[in-house]
């Protein structure tokens, strides 16, 4: 009984701090009855799109509860992530903000499930009720793990973290068939010496028309962060190609990455190198076709590639299963088909 009262006090306090609307309180009540949690302890983070709370279960396990905000303004610019995702062809109603946030929370739950099922570290989704998502807590004693941007890592650990991030980008693409689309030092937690991917509500399926642009942005943000820390990063294009290249065998992924990293560390630092940055700039601004079919003259381009001619401006070799040097024209598409069990 005390528990219930205390929970109510805590919930009220949380309410006055963050103004939970009646629907949210109702969802929380339902979740508490379902014994998803016993006590809600307070706010871990407040954001534009969601607030995250700390809670504990009857057995004193810590969990995180992410409550998505129902304000329409916030979700307007999220539209580009949801529109085009095959999982939201139906059941997504742009005119109804409540349905929209619900769809959003559902998307985060599914994405977390997919990412987890591929063995990528991230909070396990525990329970979803409307726009309220309970998930595994990454941290300890009521304190969230540090974000990558605040993590204090040795030089060696920083270098390794960069490698891990590039591997995660590839694994998300190849195995979870997702592009995070908001990957940065803000959305990676560093917990017990491991990286955890969070905030995957906007992650898109590979079917999404903009998924490769999002991938390029993710690569850019991760590179920029690690360059500031003095890591000899790959180019954005190398990260991109590494992520999408289907010709790398499962047991050759680490070796392939190591090769790229070795090459990266023997060239001048990316930030001040005029030539490298110019090439990066071209890639950043290049139009990336999602499928070979979107390229008007792909046969002409293929001939140019095969003939070893200038490939400037052709950025789909890996995607189309072609290598720049034509060493391995592949029958397999770099755009994996949907074989990921979508739900758990
Ligand atoms: P937003 O969309 O507001 O950026 P995030 O999912 O990135 O939401 O969460 C915001 C913050 O809340 C994170 O930076 C982290 O500090 C904390 N947080 C989110 N999920 C968890 C979790 N599962 N465990 C611990 N802390 C979390
Ligand atoms: Mg975030």
TrEMBL record:
Basic and acidic residues bias locations: 6-15
Keywords: ATP-binding, Cytoplasm, Hydrolase, Kinase, Magnesium, Metal-binding, Nucleotide-binding, Ribosome biogenesis, Serine/threonine-protein kinase, Transferase
Residues reported in the UniProt entry to bind Mg(2+): 187, 199
Domain RIO kinase: 9-245
Originating organism: Apatococcus fuscideae
Phylogenetic placement of the source organism: Eukaryota, Viridiplantae, Chlorophyta, core chlorophytes, Trebouxiophyceae
Region: Disordered, residue numbers: 1-16
BP GO annotations: ribosome biogenesis
Location of this fragment in the whole protein: 95 to 438 of 574
Binding site for ATP: 66, 138
Cell compartment(s), UniProt: Cytoplasm
Group of enzyme by EC: transferase
EC number: 2.7.11.1
Name this polypeptide is given: Serine/threonine-protein kinase RIO1
């Amino acid at each position: 009984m005390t528990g219930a009262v205390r929970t109510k006090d805590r919930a009220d306090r949380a309410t006055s701090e963050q103004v939970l609307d009646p629907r949210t309180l109702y969802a929380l009540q339902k979740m508490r009855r379902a014994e998803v949690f016993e006590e809600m302890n307070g706010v871990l983070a407040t954001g534009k799109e969601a607030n995250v709370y700390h809670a504990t279960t009857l057995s004193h396990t810590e969990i995180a509860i992410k409550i998505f905000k129902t304000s329409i303004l916030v979700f307007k610019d999220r539209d580009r992530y949801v529109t085009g995702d095959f999982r939201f062809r139906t059941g997504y109603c742009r005119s109804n903000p409540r349905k929209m946030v619900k769809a959003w929370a559902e998307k985060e739950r599914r994405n977390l499930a997919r990412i987890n099922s591929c063995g990528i570290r991230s909070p396990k989704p525990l329970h979803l009720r409307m726009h309220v998502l309970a998930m595994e807590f990454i941290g300890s004693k009521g304190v969230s793990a540090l974000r990558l941007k605040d993590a204090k890592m040795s030089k060696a650990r920083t270098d390794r973290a960069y490698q891990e991030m590039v591997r995660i980008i590839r694994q998300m693409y190849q195995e979870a068939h997702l592009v995070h689309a908001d990957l940065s030092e803000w959305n990676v937690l560093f917990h017990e010496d491991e990286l955890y991917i969070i905030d995957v509500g906007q992650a898109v399926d590979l079917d999404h028309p903009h998924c490769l642009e999002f991938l390029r942005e993710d690569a850019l943000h991760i590179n920029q962060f690690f360059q500031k820390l003095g890591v000899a990063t790959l180019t954005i294009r190398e990260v991109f190609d590494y992520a999408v290249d289907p010709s790398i065998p499962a047991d050759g992924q680490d070796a392939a990455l190591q090769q790229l990293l070795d090459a990266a560390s023997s060239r001048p630092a990316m930030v001040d190198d005029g030539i490298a940055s110019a090439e990066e700039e071209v890639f950043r601004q290049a139009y990336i076709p999602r499928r070979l079919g979107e390229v008007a003259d792909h046969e002409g381009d293929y001939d140019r590639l095969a003939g070893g001619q200038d490939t400037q401006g052709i950025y789909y070799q890996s995607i189309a299963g072609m290598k720049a040097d034509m060493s391995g024209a592949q029958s397999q598409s770099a755009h994996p088909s949907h074989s990921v069990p979508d739900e758990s």
